[in-house]
Design goal:
16 strands, ten-stranded antiparallel sheet, 49% strand, 406 residues, mainly beta, four-stranded mixed sheet
């Protein structure tokens, strides 16, 4: 999934003849509604789109209604998601053995270290990032962060029409509970295409499309490589710790100690990053055939792209107390005590394209000419609000004492 930006440098996406500013095909159309996709790369075929087609053009044609008997198609899918683990992380015994081996090699190759620590065992004991007790601790963080997920996909479409009016409608609902801890994705889509012949010469087409995405991701879950297997999330009594001690050493120098959140102890708090993306496209095409070989056409569209991000850390959780980055704080520093970050992007594109088309066949030869005019406008609204010092359990701007607006 992508979000709108003014700095997109990829291919131009055209849906049913409508030029869009989408960055990815999945933002423009539900795959179940696609009739055909073609790629334009050569200069002659992309010339009509101007400099916007410098990286090529993806032309998408969606399904339309058919005259005759109405048809209804339904598709329901359910699947299991299993994380593919090509890279196996070391357990405690393997990791400590590797650390000791690397430290011995560093001691042998560094004269200054040998002068400070004549005995390699003293060097290892002084500069290691684990304790003797850590030898007996081994927690599989990979299984805690990743697990089997599932997905459900439901798609229903209707095709109908008469000689004068043709109708297509499709709805879709895709929901995924991902393999990553407390991660989900929800997408709903709707498309309506209507073609109507007002008269033998006057034709109209109305296209409406809506795609709404919602992504939820748990805040405070570390990257797997940042956490060691001997860092147990439980105390000696088997209770979940709210934080984990993190020992680090730069180039086998003196060991520093900081703390990081234990995300397993924060499942009762709504520490999540919610991303809502809305893509709406509406277009109206009018075509009048002046002569069999001469026609005039007007295509008008409005395209709305909106992204809203809501990222929250509850102040009652360890990660919320420190704004998600506890390892950056030292004793005496002022802590955020809960954070709420809001980001919103709204883009509205208006586009009208008017053309006069001439096509004439002369036996084995043909002549075509096109005269066109185009006007477009984009409005963009951006806002960012960062809040801290929140009331416990309150995910709204009124619960914050600290506020910064951009």
């Amino acid at each position: 999934m992508t979000t709108p930006t003014n700095n997109y440098l990829g291919p131009l996406i055209v849906v049913d003849g409508i030029i869009t500013n989408y960055q990815a095909v999945q933002d423009a159309v539900n795959p179940a509604d696609v009739e055909n996709i073609s790629i334009l790369k050569d200069a002659s075929s992309t010339a009509i789109y101007g400099s916007r087609a410098a990286q090529g053009v993806i032309v998408i044609t969606t399904k339309r209604g058919l005259s005759g008997k109405s048809t209804v198609d339904a598709h329901i899918q359910y699947g299991i998601i299993q994380p593919k683990r090509d890279l196996r992380f070391m357990n405690t015994t393997e990791l400590i053995g590797f650390m000791d081996q690397q430290m011995r090699r560093y001691w042998e190759q560094t004269e200054s270290i040998r002068k400070t620590f004549p005995d390699v065992n003293d060097f290892i004991r002084e500069r290691r990032v684990y304790t003797d007790a850590d030898h007996s601790r081994n927690f599989n963080w990979e299984d805690a962060i990743y697990s089997n997920g599932n997905l459900r996909n439901t798609e229903v479409s209707v095709r109908s029409g008469t000689e004068k009016t043709k109708f297509y409608a499709g709805i879709g609902w895709f929901k995924e509970n991902g393999a990553l801890y407390d991660n989900s994705f929800d997408r709903k889509s709707l498309r309506v295409n209507i073609d109507h012949a007002v008269s033998r010469k006057f034709h109209t087409s109305l296209n409406l499309s809506t795609i709404v995405d919602r992504t939820s991701r748990r805040n405070g879950v570390p990257e797997l490589y940042m956490i060691q297997p001997f860092m147990s999330p439980y105390d000696e009594q088997g209770n979940l710790l709210d934080s984990l001690q993190l020992k680090q050493s730069s180039n086998y120098g003196p060991v520093t100690t900081s703390w990081m959140q234990n995300f397993l102890a924060e499942k009762d708090y709504d520490n999540t990053r919610l991303t809502n993306v809305q893509n709406h496209l509406g277009s109206l095409r009018l075509r009048y055939d002046i002569l069999p070989e001469l026609s005039i056409q007007s295509t008008n569209s409005i395209n709305y792209m909106g992204t809203n991000v809501n990222s929250y850390f509850d102040p009652r959780s360890f990660s919320g107390r420190y704004g998600g980055f506890p390892y950056l704080f030292r004793p005496g520093m002022t802590v955020p005590n809960g954070t709420l970050d809001l980001e919103e992007t709204k883009m509205v594109d208006y586009l009208t394209s008017n053309t006069l088309n001439y096509r004439k066949n002369f036996g084995q030869h043909n002549l075509s000419a096109l005269v066109g005019q185009e006007w477009g406008k984009r409005t963009t609204d951006l806002s960012t609000v960062n809040m801290n010092d929140l009331l416990a359990g309150e995910r709204n701007m009124g619960a914050a004492k600290g506020l910064a607006v951009q």
